[in-house]
Design brief:
By secondary structure, the chain is α+β, with helices and mostly antiparallel strands. It is built from 2 helices and 8 strands, in the order βββαβββαββ.
């Protein structure tokens, strides 16, 4: 099962990533000023996953990635994949495990598990 991992960026804003069962980052969220906004958006995603759209792209260097859309809003951007098959496997991982994934908070000095 994957996990949502909350952390701080260098500019002190918050972000979260969705990691696969193997611990690889699948996608990274946009920035948030406050940590509770991260937590709220993760819960919003988990409850509204069925309305998520995955817009697929190919970079100028030939790598594949997707933008995750919730409604009309850009929610997150995936990591770069070497093949379209690997890209699809990343999307499949989100669809299969996203709604049951735990939330881990690495934004402070202490590790916190959020139920």
């Amino acid at each position: 099962m994957g996990a949502f991992v909350i952390s701080k960026r260098y500019n002190d804003e918050y972000k979260f990533v969705f990691t696969s069962r193997k611990g690889k980052v699948v996608f990274t969220s946009l920035s948030y000023e406050l940590k509770f906004e991260c937590e709220e958006d993760i819960e919003r995603f988990k409850t509204n996953m069925q309305s998520a759209n995955f817009l697929k792209f190919k970079s100028s260097s030939g790598k594949f990635y997707f933008k995750l859309m919730l409604g009309d809003s850009h929610f997150a951007t995936s990591r770069k994949y070497t093949t379209s098959l690997r890209l699809q496997k990343g999307i499949d991982e989100i669809i299969k495990y996203g709604f049951v994934s735990e939330i881990l908070d690495f934004s402070g000095n202490d590790f916190i598990f959020i139920d």
